[in-house]
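SEQUENCE-TO-STRUCTURE ENTRY
===========================

Backbone structure tokens: a row of integers, each naming the local backbone shape at its residue.

Task: work out the structure tokens from the sequence, keeping to the layout shown below.
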Amino acid sequence: MNDKQKENPEPLQGRMEALRELPGSVLRSLSKNEINAFLFEEEWPDSLREKLKDYIVDGD
């Protein structure tokens, strides 16, 4: 992986589309760290899970 790829990783599959579908009021409530976690991390902080609890679909 080159330096540019490290600086600009690709979001996890489907995450950018899901972020765009969130209501504006929810999106504006997210911090930069929460948005980065949403896009790039498998495990989310509790604060993000709480803000998105009405939009999370359990896959089980």
Remarks:
- Helices lie at 3-7, 15-21, 24-29, 32-40, 46-51.
- The chain has five helices and no strands.
- The two ends are 34 Å apart (CA to CA).
